Amino acid sequence: MIKEYNKITAQELTNYYSAEIFDFADTSELKPEDRMIGQDRAIQAIDFGLLCKNPEYNIFLAGAVGTGKTSYACRAAHKIAATELPAQDWCYVHNFKKTSKPMALSFKPGEGEVFAKDIKHLFEQVSNKLKDMFKSDDYDKTKMALFKELQTKQEALWDEFSAFAEMHEVMVQWASKEARINMTPLYEGNVIIGDDLQKLPKEIREKVNEKIFIVQEAADEMVRRSQNLEELFVGNMKKVEEKFVMQFINEYFLALREKYKDNNVIDKYLDDITQAILKNLHYFKTEPPDTEDEQLNQTLMAEKRNFKIRFRNYFTVNVLVDNSNSKGAPVIYETNPTYQRLTGKIEYKNAIGVLSTNHNLIKPGAIQRANGGYLILNAYDLFKNPLAWEGLKRALKSGYIEVENLSDQFTGVNIITLKPERIPINIKVLLIGNNYIYNMLKTRDADFGKLFKIYADFEDDMENNKENAFKLANFIAYKAKEKKLAAFTKDAVAKILQHSCYIAGSQKKLTTYFNEVLEVAYQADVWRKVLGKTLVDEECVVKAKSEMNNRVNRYELYLQEMVQQGKILLDTTGKAIGQINGLAVLSTVDYIFGNVSKITANTYLGTDGVINIEREIKMSGTSHSKGVLILSSYLGEKYAQDIPLTLSASLTFEQLYSGIDGDSASSAELYALLSAIGKIPLKQHIAVTGSVNQKGEIQPIGGVSEKITGFFELCKQRGLDGSHGVMIPGQNVDELILADEIVAAIADGKFHIYPVWKIDQGIEILTDLPAGKLEENGCYPEGTVHKLVSENLRKNSEKLRELDK
């Protein structure tokens, strides 16, 4: 028997967590704290990015889901926003000069709504005052005076014209219905009507016609002069109306101008309103149209009603962003960042199949609402939406946000729509994603590096020390209070601490995937109720973890059943040549577990080298194929220094049909190969995992805890007899996070874990033979593994030489 190799003790498997480090009985004694744990580097980056007001210093938060990126981004943004002034209000108003281009007006926080009410009040007052004006005695007297003056001058023109016509022996009469002048010639004082003119002599007819022509010219001149008088009347009437209007409504405009005297844009807007009122005064008159055509009368009245509705809309202020209730800069977390939810949109009304819009139907996006503050977005959600990323970049690069009709960018048909005035923006964007998205943007989008200069990289884990353990306990206390859970005993917290190490995959680390840690805490509280306890204790946590696994481990149980039924051939007792139990990790969407596979090696005379059967049938991944090739290199360096390596051997994973990758079984394959070459039986009650390099050094692998658990479950089903165990790389010892049941079996000597650093150590454990060291004569000592292997290789070489002869 060879010397006893070191085994991992139960103490080594439990010394990384302990309830004794906590000085509280349960979490109700702690001061709950909601703060980021274990992300000092990322926090420093975020805090710097928030303090830096350069528009290009937006922040990209990278890290895995569940590390608290979103929670901290919101918390940090709200914290700094609370120290800053509220952002401006923004309004859109009707542009009376360019109706398709609504004007954007900015106000101090809360003044936007006040301005909207002021303009609404202005419209109501102006409408009422104009009605009063058109009914006033002064207005009627002035209007009648002008009208009488017009009538007097027109009558004078008519009298002058009538006298001129009488002098030329033509009788004239005004036909009001036909709006024309009837002219009847006279001859010797008698009226000539009908065919009487044709009965007169030619010379007389010509004189009569000449007189009619002269009178007709005079009539045209009279009509022209009368029209000029009417135009003069209309102009004078307009001046009078404007004078009266300004007298009646100017006090309201003066009050607003004084109130907003510091805003030149509003002063200009009020000028535009005044001109619009003066231009459309006829719509404010209450008297019906002066026409006898009933249909035309109804049409004009309908037009007046429609104008009043439209004019009321013109006076309506669209308060796009209202910060009246804000106590600091805005923080907007947009969970559905589509293009329009980011940049805003223009809505339409459908009236009898006709689409229409106005400035009141402009709706803000997240960028407008976050203007002057902070915008938080999830990168994955952002890139799921067409044009959203380009819209965000365009706004950040230009410093302005412009509301556009999205249909113009997807179709060749341009809908008549609005082109609202763009708004200057000043926002800080916090974009939350992972390292894959960050690297993709950094390498493929030239704008990204210019716009997002702060990179906050969230860690997957943190140090497992007393300080972080207490931080985790405080965090659990905070969540227990927030979610109205019962308090957790210190034993329960210690068990959650162990689970945190398991997720991190190391005794020296705690995970920062707090969502997964809290999931155990939440479910443990449910089991507390089921078990009828007042506090969440260790039993509740263990039960929660067990039940969580039971819900998702169907595939693992199915494979275990196949082994029990003998459908998957595995030996866990005795010895066998060229056969070993290798360990691998399998996974489903929700669950990872260890699986045992029989690895076999066959050797035969030839020079084909080591054949990887999985590789030959294209079921081997590149990492696994590399691991097998390394075996040939090891054999060559170890045994072929003075003779050619004469070997034909095949390796395979028995009953494995889904393919394999990774090199974590390469040491097990090498043990099987050495066993087959040297005809040395290997223990079947010890399973092996670990990678090997060309020098025979064991290298660390992943999933070591799951692999050990998988073999333990198999041996437990068949009955632990104290011989069963697993051989693992020595570097993986600090990654062992095993269930209490396995630790107890190790403590009782029923199960063993052997850490190894070299192939020589492992082969001695598996064979109970010394590996052997090369002596000065170039040979290995008798009775050693290497001696048996080298001798058989030498024999193969000699047989091949004889066959060649």
Please characterize this protein's 3D structure.
By secondary structure, the chain is of the alpha/beta class. It folds into four domains: about 1-35 and about 460-550, Helicase, Ruva Protein, domain 3 (Orthogonal Bundle); about 40-85 and about 330-460, P-loop containing nucleotide triphosphate hydrolases (Rossmann fold, 3-Layer(aba) Sandwich), CATH 3.40.50.300; about 135-250 and about 280-315; about 565-805, Ribosomal Protein S5, domain 2. The protein is about 50% helix and about 15% strand. Helix 3 packs antiparallel against helix 6 (about 200-260) and helix 6 packs antiparallel against helix 7 (about 265-280). The mean pLDDT is about 85.
Short recap of the structure:
It contains 27 helices and 30 strands. With 805 residues, the chain is an alpha/beta fold.
